[in-house]
Design brief:
The protein contains 26 helices and 14 strands. By secondary structure, it is α/β, with parallel strands linked by helices. It has three domains: 348 residues, TIM Barrel; 134 residues, no CATH class; 191 residues, Aldehyde Dehydrogenase, Chain A, domain 1, CATH 3.40.605. Strand 12, helix 25 and strand 13 form a beta-alpha-beta unit. It is globular, with a radius of gyration of 30 Å. InterPro entries: Ald_DH/histidinol_DH (IPR016161), Ald_DH_N (IPR016162), Aldehyde_DH_dom (IPR015590), FAD-linked_oxidoreductase-like (IPR029041), PRODH_PutA_dom_I/II (IPR024089), PRODH_PutA_dom_II (IPR024082), Proline_DH_dom (IPR002872), Proline_metab_enzyme (IPR050485).
């Protein structure tokens, strides 16, 4: 691995527990949280009654509003209309070319039947918008196109304004509602360059100074600031651990010192799961800083949809006890569920880092809440929720303890105003984005995804056909494991290199593998001079490192290879599709058994990064199993006539996946194969061919020719 990766330290015992819980089995993990989130019978009755009452009042209050919740109740993301609106929200304000934008809008307008939605919403504004979409879809002409384009862009800007309190922090402070507390967030996503990180640092610094001056020592009762670590460092990921701790931590520490100077809250926002342990390692350093010990405003957000959330809050509680200090913890359910699921599936992991069942997220939230409330004198708990049942349950669970609720600006005000009217007088802090509307798009899309799902409380509370209490139902379907999406075909369960234990384990395996010197010999090779003519392969990233050696196929051996393949072809074809598929699946198993060896060669011979090497390894294994499954399915009764001998010449850029894929497809069709890899990567090819042989495929059926610079003329 790269030298910078060697600087990533081993896991501490405390972090080992957090890391192990991240990918734990969902069913066994569920049993832990179910026992921890139970209320007494009396508390449950009170919470349930209050939740129902709040839901009913909230439905009535919101039916006449025109917010995003009403919009998504009318157009759920499970419908073509909902998806069309999501696409418009994500892209319409970012496409500068009018022609391209007009084509995009026309495409989205035709993607749904807007007419069927006319007049169905209790909100006159939503009905008016539906009428406009219907007319735009049916009367789209060159004359009306500019009008519709500007109308849609203006509508999206108005929608965006629901979520942004102001464009700058000065205006945001003046726009505060005295009924709420506030935590201000500077709009924007992860920094993509050092220059962007510096801009975000300056914005955060100015915001803390201005909020601090405004607060005048109000402490937890006054406004606070939230920060994203990915905005402060363009390399904020685990594989850049040392750079993050060297470059980002001083910036974070400086921001914390300024916030302490004013005695305001400074909360580190939660981000994607692959950044969780890195974030906690930085927060651990902050908690231990002597200059920050007598300040309770240091805060961090915990996402209950992560399967190790309960272990995280227990670790935070234990750390505050050991260090005799106080912190703030914002408990949220999570805002990146869709991307977390897709990322785990694309990476081919064995498990998800988040709960796949919405009910388990709710239970995890309550289990975490109990731990936070038990640490009352050390942790000031902030419970972020828009769910009336969760709000009522937390209120019962907290009793007389000091805590606060939180909600998103533009979404939670009505719920908490109603709760206050019903006697729940705990303070609510609004998470309020600050910035230009053009920076809102990623945030807006996350809100669409959160509240447009059928399982979301916001959607259910406004759907007349759905009882809101079904949000607590345990009947939801759980997803297949990421590497088992296409059963009965199973993809190899890959390591997550952003997961601390997986990274350390793979680093140790690869370091041990580096001691091996590889030799690749072609088929029908005869050593006539004691291997003195072998050519050397070096690491393209470290040219002084010898990876192995190989022998070129002599020009006169090519004809022998063709003759051998011709003799073996009829027997191989007569074997039948089913038998050939079994052998290809055995080859996939052999490839998996050589996982570390192949990854080592992909990194050191082909010059790939560890992540790219893992992806290519998975693709090679998948080729064998996918082709075998397709052949069984498509060629049950008859197989296409074999071509005879197939010469498979593969490139250097995918020396394992393309090499194996070409051979596997040709073999399944009944052909014998002469495989000729790129001269830059003979070692990988030789190991792959060995897997075919280990699977039981005879050497005469698949032959390897190496070299080519001296004899191949294409």
């Amino acid at each position: 691995m790269h030298s910078s990766n060697a600087e990533i330290p081993a896991l501490s015992p405390a972090f080992t527990n957090l890391a192990q819980a991240k990918y734990q089995d969902e069913q066994s993990a569920a049993r832990q949280i179910q026992d921890a989130c139970q209320l007494s019978a009396e508390q449950s009755l009170r919470a349930d009654a209050m939740g129902h009452l709040l839901s009913q009042k909230l439905r009535i209050a919101r039916q006449n509003q025109a917010g995003i919740d009403n919009l998504l109740s009318q157009y759920p993301l499970s419908t073509p209309a909902g998806r069309a609106l999501l696409n418009l929200a994500e892209a319409a304000l970012r496409i500068p070319d009018h022609f391209q934008l007009d084509q995009f809008i026309e495409e989205q307008l035709h993607a749904a039947d807007w007419h069927q939605h006319r007049g169905h919403s209790p909100s006159w504004l939503i009905n008016f918008a539906t009428l406009g979409l219907d007319l735009a879809e049916s009367t789209h002409t060159p004359l009306t196109t500019p009008i519709f384009r500007e109308a849609i862009k203006q509508a999206l800007r108005l929608l965006a304004s629901q979520f942004v309190i102001a464009e700058d922090i000065t205006a945001a402070l003046q726009a505060q509602n005295p009924d709420f507390r506030y935590s201000f967030d500077m709009l924007g996503e992860a920094a993509l360059s050092p220059e962007e990180a510096s801009v975000y640092l300056e914005r955060y610094t100015q915001a803390i100074h201005q909020v601090g001056a405004y607060s005048q020592g109000a402490g937890q009762f006054g406004p606070a600031v939230s920060i994203k670590l990915s905005a402060l460092c363009h390399k904020f990921d685990f594989l850049h651990y040392q750079q993050v701790h060297t470059e980002l931590y001083p910036r974070l520490y400086q921001l914390a010192l300024i916030a302490k100077q004013y005695d305001i809250g400074l909360t580190i926002d939660a981000e994607e799961s692959h950044r969780q342990l890195l974030t906690l390692s930085l927060f651990e350093r902050l908690m231990a800083e002597p200059d920050l010990l007598n300040w309770s405003g240091l805060g961090i957000a915990v996402q209950a949809y992560q399967k190790n959330a309960l272990q995280v809050v227990k670790w935070l509680s234990q750390s505050t006890r050991q260090q005799h200090r106080a912190i703030t913890v914002r408990l949220v359910k999570g805002a990146y569920w869709d991307s977390e699921i897709k990322w785990a599936q694309q990476a081919g992991l064995a498990n998800y880092p988040v709960w796949t069942n919405k009910t388990l997220t709710d239970q995890s939230y309550l289990a975490c809440a109990r731990i936070l409330l038990q640490a009352e004198n050390r942790i000031f708990a902030q419970f972020a929720t828009h769910n009336a049942f969760t709000l009522s349950t937390i209120h019962q669970m907290a009793g007389a303890q000091n805590c606060e609720f939180q909600a998103l600006f533009g979404m939670g005000e009505t719920l908490y105003q109603l709760a206050h009217e019903l006697g729940i007088e705990r303070p609510c802090r609004l998470y309020a984005p600050v910035g230009a509307h053009k920076e809102l798009l990623p945030y807006l899309v996350r809100r669409f995804l959160e509240n447009g799902a059928n399982t979301s409380f916001v959607h259910q509370v406004l759907a007349e056909a759905t009882r809101p209490e079904l949000s607590n139902s345990a009947s939801q379907h759980t997803l297949r494991q990421p590497n088992k999406l296409f059963l009965p075909r199973v993809s190899p369960a890959l390591s997550d290199l952003h997961h601390w234990p997986d990274f350390i384990r793979l680093r140790e395996d690869l370091n041990a593998q580096k001691k091996q010197r590889y030799i690749a010999l072609p088929s029908n090779y005869i050593d006539t001079d004691g291997n003195t003519h072998l050519k050397t392969i070096t690491n393209p990233a470290l040219t002084t490192e010898i990876v192995g050696q190989y022998a070129e196929t002599a020009f006169n051996e090519i004809e022998t290879a063709f003759h051998t393949a011709e003799l073996a072809q009829k027997k191989w074809q007569a074997l039948g599709v089913s038998a050939r598929a079994v052998l290809l699946e055995a080859c996939a198993d052999a490839l998996e058994a050589k996982r570390v060896l192949l990854l080592d060669l992909l990194i050191r011979e082909a010059g790939k990064t560890p992540i790219n090497a893992l992806q290519e390894f998975r693709e090679a294994v998948d080729f064998c199993r996918y082709y075998a499954a397709q052949a069984r399915s498509d060629w049950q009764h008859s197989c296409p006539a074999a071509l005879g001998i197939v010469v498979a010449i593969s490139p250097w850029n995918f020396p394992l996946a393309i090499f194996v894929g070409q051979i596997a497809s040709a073999l399944l069709a009944g052909n014998t194969v002469i495989a000729k890899p790129a001269p830059e990567t003979p070692l990988i090819a030789a190991q792959a061919i060995e897997c075919f042989y280990q699977a039981g495929i005879e050497p005469q059926v698949v032959q390897l020719l190496l070299g080519g610079e001296s004899w191949v003329r294409l």
